[in-house]
Design a protein that fits this description.
The structure holds 2 protein chains of 2 kinds. By secondary structure, chain A is mainly beta. Chain A contains 4 helices and 21 strands. Helices cover 28% and strands 22% of the residues of chain B. The chains are: A mainly beta, B alpha+beta. The interface between A and B is large, with 39 and 37 residues.
Chain lengths: 384, 290
C-alpha cells in the first residue's frame, strides 16, 4: 500500500541519496561534509539568545559593546496546520520555531552565528536552512539537511551587515513548497557601531517590527471552498498545481490575514522611532505606510549602502529583506500595506499601527469638514 | 418565567397565523414566518455620521414614534428561499460558496440582491415586501440593538482620539465574532420573538448613509447630505456598505471590523407610502426602473 504520504516520504529520502540526486540544487549532507583547516574559536566569547516570535524581536544592542562573539541560537522545525485567515481557512504549514515567518535573529558584523536546528521525530519531512547572509554550502542548506528525529549545528560568520532572508531549501520541488508553506524568516546583522544615515551619522530606533510576508496557494474544491488536508503530504499535489499558476490565494503578513490588525495591531506613539524589517522569501512586494513614510530606507537591506530618504513605497525583491526607519509624527491608525492594493485589501497583506499622542495641526488639519455645498449638483447620466 | 414566555410565544404565533393566512399565495412559494412588532415610542440612536461644530460627534438619541405596527420576518431569508428567486432569474447569485446549506440564512447578498428578492416575493404573493428602515430594524431588535456610540466627547484638538477609540471598539467586537454561518435560530430570539438579530449575519436596511450636523443646543440640522449609494447593514454594529457589495470584508485603509456576513430579512408593507416612497422612487430612477 503506497499512500500519498509514504510516497512523499520516499521521494524526500530519495532526494538525499547521491545516486538519485536528480536536482542539482538538492542538498546532500554526505557529499557536503566540510573539510578544511579547523578554526579555533575556543577563546571567543559565547552567548546564547532566546528567539522571540514575530513581529517582535529578542533584546539586542544596536551599538555593540562586546567583542565579536559566537552567538548561539536554537530553532525547532514544527510542521503544523495553521489558520491563514479569519474565515478559518487552514493550511498544512511548516515553520521555523513554530511561527510564520520564523523568528528574526539579530547579531553584529563579525559575530559567528551558531544555530542548532532540530527536526522533531513527529515531523514528516526532511528540512534544512539556507541563510542568504552566509557564505558557501548553499547558504548552509548543504550542511543542515535533517531528517525527523535529527538535529544539526551550523556555524557561519556574519560578514555582511544587513537584513537577509533565511529559508528551507531541501531540494527540488520541495524548495518552493516548503517556502510557501511558511519556512522562511530573516536575520539582521548590524554594523558593530550601529546604523548610520546617508551622511554617515549614527541613527537608532526605539523598537523593531519584523514583518514577514508570505504568499500562500491553497487549493479549492469543486464547490469553491478551500480544501483542508490531513497532513502536509496529502496537500502537496493540489498545492503545487495552484503554486504553478503563480496566483496566490493569500498574501499575508505574519502568517495570517489580520495577524497584525485589531487586537494584534502594532503599537507606537508620537516621537517614537521604529525600524520595520520586511522579508519576502519568494515573491516581490512593495511596502507602504499609509499616512507615513520611510525616513531612511535600506531597500535592499544592506547597511554598507547609504539609506534612501523620504520614500513613499519601497521595493522588496522576492528572496530578500529590507529595512525602513520611521519616526511617528501624528497620532492615529496607520495601515502598513503591500501597495499592490489587491493583495493588501483582498488577499490580506495589511498591518495596522495604532499610534497615540498629540495631533499636529501644522502637519494636517481638516479646514472644512465634509458638508453639503448647495444645489450645484452635476447630473450624472447613464451611458447612451 | 417559563409560562410567561410560552404565553408570549402563543400570542405571537396567533398573530403569525393571522398574518400568513391573509396572504394570497401564488404557486410554490413557501410563506415566511412573521412576527408583528407593535407600535410605540422608540429611543433611537440616530444613524449616520454627525458633526458638532465641524468635528465628529456621537449621534444623538432621538425619541421617535413608531406609529404603526409592522410584520417582520421571524428569520433571515434562507438559502433555499433565495435560490427559488435565483432559479427564476429574478435574483442575482449570492456570492457565498455553493456549499451553503438550504436551511441557513442566505449570505453574500448585496443591497441590490435584497431588493430583487423583495420585488420577486411581492410579485409572487401579491403583497408588498420591502427592507426595513434602520428605525424599524433597531426598534424590532430591542435589546439586540448594539449602540455604536463611542461615549466620548469630540476633541477638536486631536481628531485621532475618536479614531483610535473607534478602532479599539471594533477590534473588541471583531474578536468576539463567530465565523461560520449558523442554522436559523442558532443565535436565539429577542424579546419580540425575532430570531438571530445581531448574530453573525448583518441585515440590509433601506436607510441611506446620512451625514448631519448638530447645533450647539443639540438639535439635528436639516441640511445634511444623504448618500443612497451607501446603505446601512445592521448587526453587531452599524455598517455602511456600498449597495452592490456582497462581501464587505477588507483590510487596507478601511480600519474597523466589517460585517462577517451580509444577509437580510424583509417586512411586509401593507400601506405603501410615507417618506419611504420618496427614497424608493429616487432609487428606482437611479436604477433606471422608472
Amino acid at each position: 500500500m503506497i499512500t500519498r504520504r509514504t510516497a512523499l516520504m520516499g521521494a524526500a529520502f530519495a532526494a538525499a541519496a547521491p545516486a538519485i540526486a536528480v536536482q542539482r540544487a538538492s542538498a546532500d549532507s554526505e557529499t557536503m561534509t566540510p573539510v578544511g583547516a579547523k578554526v579555533d574559536l575556543a577563546n571567543m566569547p559565547r552567548r546564547k539568545v532566546e528567539l522571540v516570535a514575530p513581529p517582535f524581536v529578542h533584546a539586542h544592542e544596536q551599538v555593540s559593546t562586546q567583542p565579536p562573539s559566537v552567538v548561539e541560537f536554537e530553532m525547532t522545525i514544527i510542521e503544523k496546520e495553521v489558520e491563514v485567515d479569519d474565515d478559518g481557512t487552514m493550511m498544512q504549514g511548516m515553520t521555523f520555531d513554530g511561527s510564520i515567518p520564523g523568528p528574526l535573529m539579530v547579531v553584529h558584523e563579525g559575530d559567528y552565528v551558531e544555530l542548532t536546528l532540530l527536526n522533531p521525530p513527529e515531523n514528516l519531512m526532511q528540512h534544512n536552512i539556507d541563510f542568504h547572509a552566509a557564505t558557501g554550502g548553499l547558504g548552509g542548506g548543504a550542511l543542515t539537511l535533517v531528517n525527523p528525529g535529527e538535529k544539526t549545528v551550523l556555524r557561519f560568520k556574519a560578514t555582511r551587515p544587513g537584513t537577509f532572508v533565511y529559508h528551507c531549501a531541501p531540494g527540488g520541488p520541495m524548495i518552493p513548497w516548503h517556502v510557501v508553506s511558511g519556512m522562511s524568516g530573516a536575520i539582521m546583522i548590524l554594523p558593530r557601531e550601529g546604523l548610520k544615515n546617508e551622511k554617515n551619522e549614527p541613527v537608532s530606533y526605539d523598537k523593531v517590527y519584523y514583518i514577514g510576508e508570505n504568499d500562500f496557494y491553497i487549493p479549492k474544491d469543486e464547490n469553491g471552498d478551500y480544501m483542508r488536508f490531513e497532513d502536509a503530504g496529502s496537500a502537496y499535489g493540489d498545492t503545487v498545481e495552484v503554486m504553478n499558476g503563480l496566483i496566490p490565494t493569500h498574501v499575508v503578513f505574519n502568517g495570517k490575514a489580520g495577524a497584525l490588525t485589531g487586537d494584534n495591531a502594532l503599537k507606537s506613539k508620537v516621537g517614537e522611532t521604529v525600524l520595520i524589517v520586511h522579508s519576502q522569501a519568494n515573491r516581490d512586494t512593495r511596502p507602504h505606510l499609509i499616512g507615513g513614510h520611510g525616513d531612511l530606507v535600506w531597500e535592499t537591506g544592506k547597511f554598507n549602502n547609504p539609506p534612501e530618504r523620504d520614500l513613499e513605497t519601497w521595493f522588496i525583491r522576492g528572496g530578500s529583506a529590507g529595512a525602513a526607519l520611521y519616526t511617528f509624527r501624528q497620532p492615529g491608525v496607520y495601515a502598513y500595506v503591500n501597495h499592490n492594493l489587491i493583495e493588501a485589501v483582498n488577499l490580506g497583506a495589511t498591518a495596522h499601527v495604532v499610534v497615540e499622542g498629540e495631533w499636529d495641526n501644522d502637519l494636517m488639519a481638516q479646514v472644512v469638514a465634509p458638508t453639503a455645498y448647495g444645489d450645484m449638483h452635476i447630473s450624472k447620466k447613464a451611458l447612451p | 418565567m417559563h409560562s410567561i414566555f410560552k404565553a408570549k410565544t402563543a400570542a405571537i404565533l396567533s398573530v403569525l397565523y393571522l398574518a400568513t393566512t391573509a396572504i394570497a399565495v401564488s404557486q410554490d412559494v413557501s410563506l415566511p414566518e412573521l412576527v408583528t412588532v407593535s407600535s410605540g415610542m422608540h429611543q433611537y440612536r440616530a444613524s449616520g455620521e454627525f458633526l458638532r461644530s465641524g468635528v465628529p460627534a456621537d449621534a444623538p438619541v432621538l425619541a421617535i414614534s413608531m406609529p404603526r405596527s409592522f410584520d417582520i420576518m421571524k428569520y433571515q431569508v434562507s438559502v433555499e428561499a433565495y435560490r427559488s428567486c435565483v432559479s427564476e432569474g429574478a435574483c442575482g447569485e449570492a456570492l457565498a460558496n455553493r456549499s451553503q446549506k438550504p436551511d441557513h440564512p442566505v449570505t453574500g447578498i448585496s443591497f441590490t440582491n435584497a431588493l430583487e428578492y423583495a420585488r420577486w416575493l411581492s410579485a409572487k404573493t401579491n403583497v408588498k415586501w420591502r427592507l426595513p428602515t434602520d428605525e424599524e430594524w433597531s426598534y424590532a431588535a430591542g435589546s439586540r440593538f448594539v449602540d455604536d456610540s463611542l461615549g466620548a466627547r469630540e476633541d477638536p484638538e486631536n481628531p485621532a482620539l475618536r479614531w483610535l477609540l473607534k478602532y479599539q471598539k471594533y477590534a473588541d467586537l471583531e474578536s468576539e465574532q463567530t465565523l461560520p454561518v449558523k442554522p436559523h435560530g442558532d443565535f436565539g430570539a429577542n424579546e419580540n420573538g425575532i430570531y438571530d438579530m445581531s448574530g453573525n449575519v448583518w441585515e440590509w436596511t433601506q436607510t441611506c448613509y446620512q451625514r448631519s450636523s448638530i447645533d450647539l443646543d443639540g438639535k439635528v440640522r436639516a441640511d445634511g447630505t444623504a448618500n443612497c449609494g451607501v446603505r446601512i447593514a445592521e448587526g453587531q454594529h452599524r455598517a455602511y456598505i456600498t449597495y452592490f457589495v456582497q462581501d464587505a470584508k477588507g483590510g487596507g485603509c478601511s480600519v474597523g471590523a466589517p460585517p462577517t456576513h451580509l444577509g437580510f430579512r424583509l417586512v411586509r408593507d401593507d400601506k405603501a407610502g410615507t417618506a419611504l416612497g420618496l427614497i424608493n422612487r429616487w432609487w428606482d430612477s437611479l436604477l433606471g426602473k422608472d
